[in-house]
Structures are given as structure tokens and as C-alpha cells.
Amino acid sequence: MNPILVALDVDTADAAHALADQLRGAVGGFKIGKRLFTSYGPSIVERLVARGDRVFLDLKFHDIPNTVAGAVAAATRLGVWMVNVHASGGRAMMTAARDAADAEAAKLSRPAPLVIAVTVLTSLSEDAMVEVGVNGGIAAQVERLAALAQSAGLDGVVASPQEIGIIRARCGASFQVVTPGIRSASDDKGDQSRTLTAAQALSAGASYLVVGRPIIAAADPRAAAERIAAER
Ligand code: C5P
Asked: Which of 5, 9, 56, 57 maximizes ligand 1 atoms within 8 Å of its Cβ, making it the mutation to test the pocket?
């Protein structure tokens, strides 16, 4: 499939659906995050799913296992294609997420969503990690949490471009690596500091690319998506 997942980082449901209508068929799916979900709730997901879109529900669940299991089951009922949790919630929480996705999907006779984990937020610096008690460095923590997610039965992780290699080496070829921070050579990088082009990220081992502003802020979003897809 087309590996581009477009982050619908806009303020209104109307703007999100207008973008989806423009991009449908030119991209692999759409990412709905906390911003739209908090304003509009499940209806925004349901409407995309009803149109046949793959939806990555990026709510980064992190809670006790029973609560996360309930949330993942609810996401499965919504028909999302991918959902995520924080790996730092621990093995039991991730196993509960996996089991809930599988059990709910089986009940509904549909494929289970991909359940992936966030390892370390890329907004955290080495100093910020030390402040929360992680002293061994970000790279080691990313690798540890990716391996834990895999052993808890999750399908993959979200990883910044510079982490793809570490995770591929540790977790193997069939683990999904979902990578934001994608920019063309000519793009404005905005607040992303370490970026890769789509081609570089895929050849480094990314499975899916989360792309926001280079597509959604373009004058012609569909043309921008097609250009990025052609770069791979
Ligand atoms: O606009 P841009 O292409 O930078 O958007 C990237 C998307 O991926 C945004 O939705 C952003 O929140 C998300 N993201 C990220 N870096 C991470 C995790 C998620 O940029 N480490």
C-alpha cells in the first residue's frame, strides 16, 4: 500500500473532511490525533471509516491495563486501522491492549487494528529524560521500549527518522516502524529539526510515513502528496 499517512492536524471537522476528500486515493490513510478527537469525538473517525479510509487513531493511550484495554476495544469498534499506546505504560498494559484489539475484532469478525507503541516522545531531550529518571540515554531507552512492545505482541512503534535503524536492527523486518518528520529537500522544516525525505526514511526501514504540513499546508495538497509518493 501507499505508505503515506496524512496527519489531519487542522482545527475543524469540516477542514479535515475536505482534506480527506482531496487526498483519498493518493495516500495510504489519515492520522486523527487528540486535537480533532477531543473536539469532535468518534464521529470524525466514523465518517472517514465509512468512506473506506484507513484511520490511524493517534491518542497514545497510557493508563492502567484495564482502562487501556477498554479504550482499545472502543477504537476497534470504531473500525480504526491503527491505534497507539505509550510503551512506558509497561508490558501488562501493552498486552492488555493487544488482547483487547484481538478479542473485539474477533467478536466483530473483522481484522484487528495494528496496535503500535510510542517509545520516547521526540520532544524530550536527554536532560528532560534525566529529570524523569531515565539516565541511560534516549537511544537505549527507545531500543528497550521497542523490544518490550514487540515482546508484548504489538505490531510496531512510532519512531523518529534517526531511530529507525536501531529499531530495525533490534526488532527485525516484520515489525512496523511508523515515522514522522518527513520533508522534501525543498520543504520548510518548521519545528522538525532532524528530518529525512520519504525515500531516505523508507530505505532506512520505515514502514509508514506520517506527513502533515508538507501536504496539508500545500497550495495543492493532492499534488504535494503525489510528489512525495513519487519520491520514494
Ligand atoms: O506537519 P508534520 O509533517 O511535522 O506533522 C507530523 C505529525 O506527526 C504531527 O501530527 C506530529 O504531531 C506527529 N509526530 C511528530 N513527531 C513525533 C510523533 C508524532 O511529528 N515524534
From this structure: 9
